[in-house]
Structures are given as C-alpha cells and as structure tokens.
C-alpha cells in the first residue's frame, strides 16, 4: 500500500472500527467476563486490539490538519473525542484493562505540545486516588491543605499570603471534617459554628486576595475542594461501579487485603515464579512453576513469568532492554518524519507499546493491578499479534517514504 493510503482512509478505518466495537456488544462472545470477541467458526477475533491502530490513524489525521493546535479548546475536544469514544465502548464491553491502554496517548500529546498543567492535574488525581484508600479523612484534608499552601507560596514567593491561606484552609478542613462526621454523634451546634467560621474566613480571603492582587489564591482553594471531592467520588465509584474482582485486585495491590488462595493467587504465584529464577534462571524449559501450571494464564497475560523463571534477572533485563530499544527506535522514526501525520502516528505506536510493556510487566511483579494486557510479540493470541504487527509495520512504511526521499536526494 502507498503511504498516502493511511492518511486518506484514516477516518473511514476509525469509524468502521467504532461500528464493529458497538456490534461486538450485541453479537460478541463473552470470554473471561468480557464481551469483546467475535467468533467465526473456530477463529476468534478481538476488535479491541485493532481499534488501537484505527485510533492512532485518526489522531494522526486530526492533529496533522492545517491550523490545528492542541492548546485550543476545540482542538483538545476533538482529540478527546477520538480517544474517549473507543474507551467508553470498551468499558461497556467489560474490558477495562484494554481501555486503560488508550491513556497512553498522553505521551504522544505531550510531544505535540499539550500543556504541562494537565499532567500535573493527572498526577494529583492519581495521588488522591491512592490517598483515598491509604489515609483517613482528616489526614487527607491536612495533606491537601499543606500541599496547596506550599504550591501557592512557591508560585508567589509571598509567605504572608501563604500563612493567611493556610489558616483559611485549616478552618475549611475542620468544617468539612466535622460535617463528614455529623452523622456519627457530633453536636449540631459545633458543625454550624465551623461552617459559619469557614464561610466568614472564605469571604475574608477573597477580599484579601483582590486587594493584594493575589487572585490565584482562589484557584488553590478550588483545587483543594476539587481534590477532596474527587477522593470522595473515588470511594463512591469503588463501592458502586467496580466489580468485586476489580475491588479485590486493587485492595490486594495496596496491601489492604490479602487472599493468597483467592484474588491474590495469580500475583503471588507470579512473584514466586519470577523470584525462583534467580540471576540466570533455570534454563530453557527448565522452569518447574510454569511446567506444572502453578501460574494461571502463563501463555498470555503472565507470560513474563516464564522469562523470569527460565532466564532469571538477566533474561528479564534483556527482554525489557529490547523493548526499550524498540520503543526508542519508533520514536526516532517519528522525529525524522517530514510531515506531522507520520510523526504523530509513530509516537502513538510508541505510546501503545510502552503502555503494554509497562502494565504487563508491572502486574506480573505486583506493582500494578492485574488487567488483561498482553505483552507485545510474546503473549499467545492472534488478535494482539495482528494488531501489533499492523501498528509497527505501518510505521515502518511511513518511515520508508522518508528513507526513499533521502536516497533520491543523495
């Protein structure tokens, strides 16, 4: 195929895949709780894997358009639509793990100039997600107050305004804390008094900020409230939206619950298997844990255990190093593209590969929750192999156009 084919037909490919993803919810076959497979005779195809290729093409076509800028709201909304649409459909198929891979496009967007504050917000939300499980309400509010105050002081270099802000946030903290515990026997008069004090203090800080031209203090007040409300929303979503096995995996990962014969069995056996390999491993086909099937899904999601047991720490580092070289090579291919379409597509491919490698290896060694993410070119499965092959060799085809032009020039 000519390299221009991918540019011209990127949108038709994307929308065709969206139609297929929607159709899977009605005619698909359920495997391991996820309705994301289409069976045609003895052949099973997972369109979710091919949708990554379609999304990468659509993003490259959208962001390479004339006068497009990712810093503008219309441009950001278009990019978000192309990413969130397949994510939402895949979540409805009950395949949350595959949907998480689409978050990897944030790396490509960073290369294309997405504002850095968005990544700080994302990091803050991840921190709040963890804190909502690991610390109590009062400690969480104090942490938020200290962090917001320190950030405001660092930005303005004004210790006095920071001290005033800290006092205001402390009062708001106490008001929220008493309000959260009012149903646990706290006096109503104390709660009303704290709310009144917080309201008066908030009015005072607003007047102070406008008089001193320190209006960004108000932004940090909003950040404080937003982060706290997000942490409360995490608790609600955890209890009402996540399935039992997803809840157990998160709690097991954070060390809040341990069930080595139930939800934690896979990860525990995975860590035992990798650790038993030592430095150099037990040799090819010499692994006992994998040979006697102690590790579930050892040919697909947990195939990295086989590498760790048979080839040890050295073998694991060689495999991880090869993946790193591959990802850096794809990024280099993107940098030497003469057109934005090729660069954006190559960075999208690098982002997808990086997400799969990090998540798959991370879950086998117990650093990330267990999700159904294959290891590229290692895990057994025709759909993932076809998807990764198309992703990689389309990038090579786009790069060949650059190489041919250089050859002609010389």
Give a brief rundown of this model.
By secondary structure, this protein is mainly alpha-helical. It has helices spanning 4-8, 10-27, 47-63, 73-92, 96-100, 105-111, 116-134, 137-156, 159-180, 188-211, 216-240, 244-253, 265-276, 288-291, 304-335, 340-364, 382-409; strands at residues 29-31, 34-40, 43-45. The chain has a three-stranded antiparallel β-sheet, with helices on one face.
Q: What level of helicity do the residues show?
A: over 70%
* Tally of helical segments: 17
- Major sheet: size, sense and barrel closure? 3 strands, antiparallel
N-to-C span: 25 Å
Give the averaged pLDDT, no decimals: 81
**Order of strands across the biggest sheet?**
1-2-3
- Alpha-carbon Rg, integer: 25 Å
Q: Report the strand count.
A: 3
What can you tell me about this protein's structure?
- The chain has 410 residues and is mainly alpha-helical.
- The protein is 71% helix and 3% strand.
- The chain has 17 helices and three strands.
- Strands 1-2-3 form a three-stranded antiparallel sheet, with helices on one face.
- Strand 1 and strand 2 form a beta hairpin.
- The relative contact order is 0.10.
- The model has no long low-confidence stretch (mean pLDDT 81).
Describe how the helices and strands are arranged.
Layout (H helix, E strand, L loop, with lengths): L3 H5 L1 H18 L1 E3 L2 E7 L2 E3 L1 H17 L9 H20 L3 H5 L4 H7 L4 H19 L2 H20 L2 H22 L7 H24 L4 H25 L3 H10 L11 H12 L11 H4 L12 H32 L4 H25 L17 H28 L1
Antiparallel strand pairs: 1-2, 2-3
């Amino acid at each position: 195929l000519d390299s221009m084919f991918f540019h011209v037909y990127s949108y038709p490919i994307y929308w065709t895949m969206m139609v297929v993803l929607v159709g899977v919810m009605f005619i698909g076959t359920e495997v391991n709780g996820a309705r994301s497979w289409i069976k045609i005779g003895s052949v099973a195809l997972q369109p979710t894997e091919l949708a990554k290729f379609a999304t990468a093409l659509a993003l490259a076509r959208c962001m390479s358009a004339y006068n497009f800028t990712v810093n503008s709201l219309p441009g950001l909304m278009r990019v978000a639509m192309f990413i969130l649409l397949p994510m939402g459909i895949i979540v409805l198929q009950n395949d949350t793990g595959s949907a998480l891979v689409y978050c990897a496009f944030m790396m490509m967007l960073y290369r294309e100039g997405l504002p850095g504050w968005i990544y700080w917000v994302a990091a803050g939300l991840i921190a709040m997600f963890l804190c909502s499980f690991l610390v109590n309400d009062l400690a969480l509010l104090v942490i938020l107050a200290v962090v917001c105050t320190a950030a405001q002081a660092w930005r303005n270099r004004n210790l006095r305004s920071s001290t005033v802000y800290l006092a205001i946030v402390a009062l708001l903290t106490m008001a929220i804390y008493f309000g959260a515990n009012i149903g646990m026997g706290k006096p109503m008069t104390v709660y009303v008094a704290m709310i009144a004090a917080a309201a008066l203090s908030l009015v005072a800080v607003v007047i102070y900020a406008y008089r001193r031209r320190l209006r960004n203090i108000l932004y940090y007040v909003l950040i404080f409230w937003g982060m706290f409300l997000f942490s409360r929303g995490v608790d609600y979503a955890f209890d009402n939206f996540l399935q039992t096995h997803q809840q157990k995996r998160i709690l097991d990962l954070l060390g809040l619950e341990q069930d080595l014969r139930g939800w934690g069995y896979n990860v525990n056996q995975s860590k035992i298997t990798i650790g038993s390999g030592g430095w150099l491993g037990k040799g090819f086909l010499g692994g006992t844990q994998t040979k006697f099937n102690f590790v579930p899904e050892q040919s697909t999601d947990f195939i990295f255990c086989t590498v760790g047991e048979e080839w040890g720490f050295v073998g694991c580092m060689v495999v991880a190093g090869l993946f790193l070289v591959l990802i850096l090579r794809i990024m280099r291919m993107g940098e030497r593209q003469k057109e934005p379409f090729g660069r954006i597509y190559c960075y999208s491919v690098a982002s997808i590969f990086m997400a799969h490698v990090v998540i798959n290896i991370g879950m086998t060694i117990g650093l990330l929750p267990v999700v159904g993410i294959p290891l590229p070119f290692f895990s057994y499965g025709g759909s993932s192999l076809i998807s990764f092959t198309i992703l990689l060799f389309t990038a090579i085809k786009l790069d060949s156009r650059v190489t041919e032009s250089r050859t002609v020039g010389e």
